[in-house]
Amino acid sequence: MKGKILNKKMIFFFGALGGLLYGYDMGVISGALLFIKNDIPLTSFTEGLVVSSMLFGAIFGSGFSGPLSDKFGRRRLVFMISIIFIIGSLVLAFAPNMEALVVGRLIIGLAVGGSTAIVPVYLSEMAPTESRGSLSSLNQLMITIGILSSYLVNYAFAEIEGWRWMVGLALVPSLILMIGVLFMPESPRWLLEHRSESAARRVMKLTRKSEEIDKEIDEMHEINRISEGTWKVLASSWLRPTLIIGCTFALLQQIIGINAIIYYAPTIFSQAGLGDVTAILGTVGIGSVNVLMTIVAIMIIDKIDRKKLLITGNIGMVASLVIMAVLIWTLGLDSNLGAWIIVACLSLFIIFFAFTWGPVLWVMLPELFPMRARGAATGIAALALSIGSLLVAQFFPMLAEALGVGQVFLIFAVIGVVALIFVIKFLPETRGRSLEEIEADLRKRTAS
């Protein structure tokens, strides 16, 4: 660690800032698409390709970043990710054609995939046990703030159809992240394994009470003593069931319907007759609800079991999707009342997602996996997440065109029911336990 280290609050702020960039680049394309088509002709397929190309990049970014972070450290990789965000933002801002847009989104996707794999791991390893849920939820809060920021930027430049400004302004938080990461400490768990115990203790003093440090250090030494190398852990039979659970959890979060709303809400509202500028304003309302309910999640996530939150969210999301589908069939999408019903139902969906499935996934993924392979395993789960996001981004506009919006959201409702069954039957509870306790229990359960 070189230079002056940030204080506790700033450590977690900059640690989660990659989530803001993920959210911004995920949300900004929804408004930009309305105006890109005026300069660069797009079909329903190429429109989906521009959106989903970021997710192709994310698949590679999440797949490679986990093992790299286990080898070189979380902090160094976040710095590299910030540089990739900068390059991608500049390519998008000056893109002359559809091919350049796809390339820019692919570059951004590499950084997005890296941030989805590394940011949750870093926050989880930096946070003390009793507040790990709320501090790890900062990633999701930053994602929602990034989405809302993109909607506000979209609205600000909608009158002049300034889509290049929309996509290019991601450069600002990218530069802030690049500078901020220079003053961030490395994860204490990574330092203990790759540097020294004294280096780990110095970092832990920034975020923990002194009496907690000895206990956690002893637990980490014990796990290191019995643990194999990263690739051997990943290939082990005892980790395989948990890896499958983590990947399924991440995949379900993306195909449950949230990305159809984030990527295509302005298009849906515009088709419903709200007008382009009003459609973007409608997404600002949805983005605001997303941020507010994520703040609620941060306040309650260390007080309520993770599984109870997920089950509550499932029930609420499925109900809102079914209600919306029925009302669209009854009133039609192109009526003024139908348009505002969609806004209300999508807002209700966001409310339930934002304080349950949104933050809980990012809290639980690093909790599920052992220390020696936490970065790599979380990266694999993030890869599954990116695949799910890619499927929604690429196929939603085509399915909506072929089947209708109401029928597609009914499909999401069915997926929500599947997700509910998965949570009840397969997902373990992790609240109130140290990462080392969770790992010890994982070894015991899978060995028996």
Automatic annotation (TrEMBL):
Question: What residues form the membrane-spanning segments?
Answer: 12-36, 48-65, 77-96, 102-123, 135-157, 163-185, 242-265, 277-302, 309-331, 337-364, 376-396, 402-424
Secretion signal: which residues?
Answer: none
Sorted alphabetically, which keywords does the UniProt record give?
A: Cell membrane, Membrane, Transmembrane, Transmembrane helix, Transport
- Residues forming the Major facilitator superfamily (MFS) profile domain are 11-431
- Write down the superkingdom of origin: Bacteria
Predominant localisation class: membrane
Q: Which CDD domains match?
A: MFS_XylE_like (cd17359)
Indicate how the chain sits in the lipid bilayer: Multi-pass membrane protein
| InterPro entries recorded | MFS_dom, MFS_sugar_transport-like, MFS_trans_sf, Myo-inositol_Transporter, Sugar/inositol_transpt, Sugar_transporter_CS, XylE-like
Q: Does the keyword Lipoprotein apply?
A: no
**Keyword Transmembrane on entry:** yes
Instruction: Report the family membership.
Output: Belongs to the major facilitator superfamily. Sugar transporter (TC 2.A.1.1) family.
Cross-referenced PANTHER family: PROTON MYO-INOSITOL COTRANSPORTER
NCBIfam families noted in UniProt = SP
Protein name stated in the entry = MFS transporter
Q: Which organism is it from?
A: Virgibacillus kapii
